[in-house]
Each structure stands twice: as C-alpha cells, then as structure tokens.
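Input record (one chain):
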Amino acid sequence: MADRLCPQITLPAVAYVPGQNTHPKHLFKDLWPSLDHFAEDNWKSATPYLMGFDLYHAGFYWEAHETWEEVWHLCKKQSPAGPLVQSLIFLTASRLKLRMDQSEQSQRMVKRALELLTDLKEVDSAVILGISLANYIDLLENIKTQSPTLTIHWG
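The corresponding structure, as predicted from the sequence alone:
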C-alpha cells in the first residue's frame, strides 16, 4: 500500500460494498474540511482530493468514489482537472464492481475512465493534479484484477 497522504485522518472501520454490508450511517467525509473551491493550483492542500488516494489505496473504493465526486463537482467545468478527477471516480467504481464480482461492469468503467482522458492527451502538462498522465493511462490500459498504486508527483 502507498504511503498515506493524510495520516492524521482515521480511515473508516469497514469498506462499504453495496449488497454485501450495511450502508454507512455516518458521513465519513465529516472527518475533514469540505472544499469551497478546487483548482489545479490548490490540489496539494485539498484534503478531500488527497484523502481520495488514501481511501483508494486502502481498498475503500465506495468512499474514495464519494470523496472524489465532491472534488469533481467543484472542478468539472475546468479542464484538464475535471476529466482527470472524473476518470479517478470511474477507476474507483471499477475496483468496487470487481469486488462485487461484476468484472464486465468493472471493465466498462475502466474503458470510460480511459475515454475521459482522450482530450487530455493534447494537454501540454505531463503531470496534472500530481498525476503523470502517461503513467495513469498506461495503468488503466493494463489494469486487470489488481488495484494498482496511483503515484502522486509533488513537483
């Protein structure tokens, strides 16, 4: 598992898997401050964005999906941040579907995650929101049954 980006925040006790366990009654997102705006220039201090990686790497796919969705709603009209965050949401959904033994739906989610990045291939920046676009596309193209580590570039 990757190093935690927000080690000061406790992870949920149990990962929610629809149809397999009880929906969390508490809002785990209340454990960190919400965002009032998100942009490419503030991602390093955006706790929900960073916490999404911690949740994803720890196998909390539903929780990561919900967390990144909050970020996406704040940046969806901004390119290239919007499509990248939306792609992360589809990645987490694909891992959740795989955990639910829905491999066909999982592969569709991966395909959708890749489609969202099509227009970003033309972007000058090789790293967007700390993610190497080339490495992320390669990860998605080669993903199978494992949940690969997403590497963050702080430079």
